[in-house]
């Protein structure tokens, strides 16, 4: 599958069933995804794979933070895919590469992973949710104090073959400018609501 096709046909999949990639296949894809741009090659992340009965323990953590009467619903969220790959961010404090760049590198790696999974016929969706970095979740995963979860890549095989909803073409004209062609003040401010010209 070429890159253009992979990007245009990927969809976040909400109904995921077995099979999911094995640990070996996950590692194989990750070796490729980890070639995404990463300033300083810090690899400021790690993955914790949660599958099978381990999802019960994670679901219990979700339930622990749920509103009264919604524990079962929260627990069931951990069973929405056969594999929940926990994305853990490990920022290097005080490094010359600022934290936002480390987070950007982590997100790029994750997106590459989603495209690679898609190219192999797997589906995925990045979910965070209210309990992603809650104390019970952190304890279960054994996170170090400087680490934090960025949620989970829910991974499996799409339950249904579905017709791809079209990606609606958007007018992105105002998103690209040049020094020679400055934006209209109304476009430059955009959602920021600033009347001043932005460069
Ligand atoms: C960092 C991040 C966190 C997200 N968290 C959730 C979430 O907790 N629950 C959810 O339903 N969608 C979440 N989303 C949105 C989906 O992953 C997905 O991008 C969205 O449904 C659009 O689908 P598409 O990827 O097919 O365009 C999140 C997206 C990102 C980038």
Blueprint of the fold:
Elements: H1 3-9, E1 16-17, H2 23-33, E2 45-51, H3 54-64, H4 71-76, E3 83-89, H5 99-119, E4 123-127, H6 135-141, E5 148-158, H7 185-189
Antiparallel strand pairs: 1-5, 2-3, 3-5, 4-5
Helix pairs in contact: 2-5
The protein binds flavin mononucleotide.
Flavin mononucleotide binds next to strand 4.
GO molecular function: oxidoreductase activity
Organism: Dactylosporangium siamense
Binding site for FMN: 10-12, 39, 126-128
Task: Kindly list the characteristics that best describe this protein.
2 domains, alpha+beta, 199 residues, binds flavin mononucleotide, 7 helices, disordered C terminus, globular, NADH Oxidase, 5-stranded antiparallel beta sheet
Characterise the protein shown here.
By secondary structure, this protein is an alpha+beta fold. The protein folds into two domains: 3-165, 3-Layer(aba) Sandwich (NADH Oxidase), CATH 3.40.109.10; 169-199, no CATH class. 34% of the residues lie in helices and 16% in strands. It is built from seven helices and five strands, in the order H-E-H-E-H-H-E-H-E-H-E-H. Strands 1, 2, 3, 4 and 5 form a five-stranded antiparallel β-sheet that branches. The radius of gyration is 20 Å and the shape is globular. The structure holds flavin mononucleotide. Residues 11-12, 125-129, 151 line the site of flavin mononucleotide.
């Amino acid at each position: 599958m070429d890159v253009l096709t992979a990007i245009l046909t990927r969809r976040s999949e909400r109904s995921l069933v077995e099979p999911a990639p094995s640990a070996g296949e996950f590692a194989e894809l990750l070796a490729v995804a980890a070639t995404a741009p990463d300033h300083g090659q810090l690899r400021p992340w790690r993955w914790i794979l949660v599958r099978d009965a381990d999802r019960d323990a994670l679901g219990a953590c979700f339930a622990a933070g749920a509103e009264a009467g919604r524990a079962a619903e929260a627990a069931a969220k951990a069973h929405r895919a056969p594999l929940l790959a926990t994305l853990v961010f490990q920022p290097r404090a005080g490094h010359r590469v600022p934290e936002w760049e480390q987070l950007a590198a982590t997100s790029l790696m994750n997106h590459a992973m989603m495209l690679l999974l898609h190219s192999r016929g797997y589906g995925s969706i990045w979910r965070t949710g209210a309990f992603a970095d809650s104390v019970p979740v952190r304890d279960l995963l054994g996170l170090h104090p400087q680490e934090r979860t960025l949620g989970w890549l829910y991974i499996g095989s799409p339950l249904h073959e579905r017709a791809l909803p079209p990606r609606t073409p958007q007018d992105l004209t105002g998103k690209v400018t040049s020094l020679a062609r400055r934006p209209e003040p109304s476009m430059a401010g955009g959602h920021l609501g600033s009347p001043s010209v932005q460069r």
